[in-house]
Design a protein that fits this description.
The chain has helices spanning 11-22, 37-41, 44-63, 91-115, 200-212, 231-243, 333-347, 377-381, 398-403, 431-443, 448-453, 463-477, and strands at residues 3-7, 26-31, 119-122, 124-127, 137-142, 148-153, 155-158, 162-164, 177-178, 192-196, 215-219, 247-249, 254-260, 263-268, 273-276, 278-281, 285-287, 320-322, 361-364, 369-374, 388-393, 409-414, 421-428. It has 481 residues and is α/β, with parallel strands linked by helices. β11, α6 and β12 (247-249) form a beta-alpha-beta unit. It has a 5-stranded parallel beta sheet with strand order 3-2-1-7-18, with helices on one face. It is built from 12 helices and 23 strands. α1 runs parallel beside α4, α1 (11-22) runs parallel beside α7 and α3 (44-63) crosses α4 (91-115).
Length: 481
């Protein structure tokens, strides 16, 4: 029987284990924290659970008056008096729910993997030397008590994820200066939160804590928030942040953070110092590849610490694959899972389609959300692809008007002549759900005519997708709208 050892139990690891076991291999998963990895225990699942509470707060706060909802303070003197809105959050209760759901998800994953026939070992794994004459490799597993066990594998998958990057002069203490794995230990809502870093993680937490009631300052070293996202989408989000009272400091690089009593002072590179009750460092991640014997095993590692892989997840070492954040390819649970599945399909000789990043849909869980798929505005602007672009504001959508949605749009990219859809952006509440029809179009080379001719519910936000497709058809044919 083919022996497969998977080091790391994140999405890439546990999805690979399920596939490997289903295809008849003897699979062992080595993990030190719990299956699901950081994605389930400290990153994706916890943060999106926290954001779910923030989403309710934001939706209520932004539209309750327009929709005619009255909130009365129960301490008002009489029934005729209308008191100010009183809505708060118990962060301790929220975080206890976050941790409970994360652990439950991890247990569910472990149960699924073991039911499939894979073995789960607690410990840290590392490669031991190069490939043997018979093609096998050795993996050394170190348990919590220091004991070691050697496993023989015909193939090894490395899926050990990443951990928060730290600034030398801004070391997290878990109380006032925090990284994104430590925020779930807070029992009280930060009164004044400084978020350093305006990428996806920083933007998501900044928006969430602002919605929960914190006064938030977002420190961005770039010209705008979310510098890697669609510029129109990032512009909408930054405008929303500012309108809701967030202090967005663009072109401001943080150099240090220190505690001063019960407060935190953050020093900027231009000499300014800003102060808050808490500081969240969201300045990127470092792959967990150190001390794993990769170089000795012949695995090529980039200067950044990421493992170099091809489109079927192979590394430079025969029989060694890698998946997830350790590869430096889209830090998304969906991509990690696909990389893990592809690795198993490839090694075990099953039919496999190489990873195609131009069909990956992703989402930023801010409010509004930003969902993207396929080619981007940057690709079009740089001439990497010739595409026609139409953007339609949600303000024109009847369902958006009914729900009090003011911000957002649908944008689709289509090839001239053929009208084949090659990309799209949705900025909207629950954009993560609305991007799917565009993702289907990109993945299956559908045309704008096919999207436009499909019935949509009236009224619905998805109607804007069909409307954009109709406008792109007009652009393609040269007709007057």
């Amino acid at each position: 029987m083919t022996r497969i050892v998977i080091i790391g139990g994140g999405p890439g690891g546990y999805e690979a284990a399920l596939v490997g076991a289903q295809l008849g291999a003897e699979v062992t998963v080595v993990d030190c924290d719990g299956l699901g990895g950081a994605s389930v225990l400290t990153d994706c699942v916890p943060s999106k659970t926290l954001i779910a509470t923030a989403e309710v707060m934001t939706t209520f706060d932004s539209s309750y008056e327009e929709l005619g909802i009255i909130v009365a303070d129960t301490t008002a003197a009489g029934p005729s008096e209308r008191a100010a809105r009183v809505v708060g959050v118990d962060l301790g209760k929220v975080n206890r729910r976050v941790k409970r759901l994360a652990l439950a998800q991890s247990h569910d994953i472990t149960a699924s993997v073991t039911r499939a026939g894979a073995r789960v070992m607690r410990g840290r794994g590392r490669l031991d030397g190069r490939q043997a004459v018979d093609g096998s490799r050795q993996v050394i597993v170190t348990a919590a008590d220091g004991s070691e066990e050697s496993l023989t594998a015909d193939a090894v998958l490395i899926a050990t994820g990443a951990h928060p990057r730290e600034i030398p002069d801004a070391q997290p203490d878990g109380e006032r200066i925090l990284n994104w794995t430590q925020v779930y230990d807070l029992d009280e809502l930060p009164e004044e939160l400084i978020v350093v870093g305006s990428g996806v993680t920083g933007a998501e937490f900044a928006g969430a804590y602002q919605a929960l009631g914190s006064r938030v300052t977002l420190v961005s070293s770039r010209d705008r928030v979310l510098p890697g996202e669609d510029p129109d989408a990032a512009g909408v989000l930054e405008d929303v942040f500012r309108r809701r009272g967030m202090n967005v400091m663009s072109r401001s690089r943080a150099e240090a953070a220190k505690r001063v009593g019960d407060r935190v002072e953050v020093a900027l590179s231009d000499g300014r110092v800003i102060s808050g009750t808490h500081c969240l460092m969201a300045v990127g991640a470092i792959p967990n590849t150190a001390g794993m014997g990769l170089e000795e095993a012949g695995v090529l590692v980039k200067e950044s610490g990421h493992i170099k892989t091809d489109r079927v997840s192979r590394t430079s070492a025969p029989g060694v694959y890698a998946a997830g954040d350790v590869t430096g390819i889209f830090a998304l649970a969906s991509v990690a899972a696909m990389q893990g599945r592809i690795a198993m399909y490839h090694f075990l000789g099953d039919a496999v389609a190489p990873l195609n990043l131009k069909t990956v849909s992703s989402n930023v869980f801010t409010d509004p959300e930003i969902a993207t798929v396929g080619y981007s505005q940057a690709d079009v602007d740089a001439g990497r692809i010739d595409a026609r672009v139409v953007k339609l504001p949600l303000l024109r959508n009847p369902r958006a008007k009914m729900q009090g949605i003011r911000d957002g749009f649908v944008k689709i990219f289509a090839r001239p002549g053929t009208g084949i859809v090659v990309g799209g952006v949705v900025v909207s509440p629950r954009a993560s759900e609305l991007i799917h029809p565009i993702a289907l179009a990109v993945d299956n080379n559908l045309t704008v005519e096919q999207i436009a001719n499909a019935f949509t519910v009236y009224p619905s936000l998805s109607g804007s997708i069909a409307e954009v497709a109709r406008q792109l058809h007009t652009v393609k044919t040269g007709e007057e709208g």
